[in-house]
Amino acid sequence: MHKIIIPRFDPAMKTGKIIKWLKSEGETVNKGEPLLIVEGEKTVFEVEAPANGILRKILYQAGSEVEVLKPIALIGEVNEPIPQELIEEIEKKVKSEIKAETIEKSKIEKTFIKTAERVKASPLAKKLAEEYGINIEEIKGTGPGGRITKEDVLNAVKKASLELKPTLAEASISGLKPIPIAKTIPLSRTRKTIAERLVYSLHKAASTTIITSVNLENLLKYREEIKSSLSEVSLTAFIVKATAKALETHPIFNSTLNEEEIKIFEDINIALAIHTEEGLVTPVIKNANKKSIIEISNEIKDLTNKAFQRKLSIDELTGGTFTITNLGAYDVELFIPIINPPQTGILGVGKIEKKPIVVNDQILIKPTAALTLVFDHRVVDGVPAAKFLQEIKHFLENPKEL
To answer: Residue 362: beta bridge partners?
Structure first.
């Protein structure tokens, strides 16, 4: 009997949501044939059959959120017995989750009832407290016998709101009802994953930032030179290539911290941050140090198009060893990005601006941009980081060396 699982394509991936089964129980399946569609934390992908046989049992239906590496279905021969202990284990888990949810709901209801019975307040006061999210137990009543009135609740709301933003409080209190919500946006899996990873990065990594500026005059001229004979090359392609080359001589930045070990990756795979309507995705340019700038530029275009069409494959979204994020196109001069775990560093690139710089004791106006390197200080110190950033700068100022 072969078990079908939701694979883990990323170290941080915890669960997958079953969107649709492409096969039904009892149907014949072939090895490598798509069986179901799953929504992961970064993209939607197909899970293939691990072997030939009959789809004997579907353990989780469409809509289920399942932990990675857990069995979700079974493939076997026509008369091959289905392991009942596995089915019983899943049923027991589902019942346990339902029971826990019911108990928690009951506790909340009982707490609310007890609170309502214990606190002396008018019905309108209770209703307003519930609407504004105010703990009625913390309000001191001014009515007869300490009874909480409507005015007591509104004063509590005003006090709480003024601590945050006076204008917000005034707008809210004047109408005696909460500020209307224009739109509620459910947190997508992509957005949720981004949030979890960034919070993890902020709490776990000892993020340290260093910044330098780079003179891009030579790069822009060289870019125009090769543009005449070849298709237009993106500026980001040069940055990717320069970073990848610098990682060859500074491999400590091409690493991850695993408990008490620093593991340096063999391949240099640059993850590129791309903003889409669904949120941020980071497709990966594999072995970027071994590719030409033209190859990298074409790959960036292809990955960007796929990102906006939600057609990025799992392979294109995983395996990154260092990340680059470029906000120059959005008129951002300087920003400090957050490390993409479990990587050690990330490079932020700002917009190109003409600024005065000193060249051979002369003040000249040159096109410059800010480079921001954020790195994990647990893995590497400031001086090696400065040298790494200097090398990236050197390659960008001398693009023909790439």
So the answer is: 359
